[in-house]
Amino acid sequence: MTAPKQPVSVLVVIHTPELDVLLLERAAHPGFWQSVTGSREGDESLISTARREVAEETGISRPIGDYSNWSLSNTYDIFEQWRHRYAPGVTSNVEHVFSLCLPAPLPIVTSPSEHRAWQWLPWQEAAKRCFSWSNSDAILMLPGRHRPKG
What we know:
By secondary structure, the chain is an alpha+beta fold. It has a single domain, classed as Nucleoside Triphosphate Pyrophosphohydrolase (Alpha-Beta Complex), CATH 3.90.79.10. The chain contains three helices and seven strands, in the order E-E-E-E-H-E-E-E-H-H. It has helices at residues 46-58, 123-129, 133-145, and strands at 8-15, 20-26, 33-34, 36-39, 67-77, 92-101, 115-122. Strand 2 (20-26) and strand 3 (33-34) form a beta hairpin.
């Protein structure tokens, strides 16, 4: 039997210096577009969760130092259709926001059981496409958070 999911997760906004943002379409919910998300497993650190989820959902493997921790969290109600994955009585989740800047858009390798499609979009368009308010809000904050290196 699989252990219940922890009500602690990460949201990772993957983008380029030009602020093109990667979105993934959920396999089980066509039309639901999102950034990389996922729950913490065991006692792993949040940054390790972010790195693992990016690798699992996109095939991208980057060192932990490439990730930016926004020190921002959102608490939201877990959708009714997904509550069975959590321990009985758990109805809310705390999501921690990270970003990952890549030099240019990359081809993505998704897991067909999780995502059915992917696309790179300008940040404003990506924010409009997201079904999740917290994901949309994070993308809208991206221009103020991204600090080009150099």
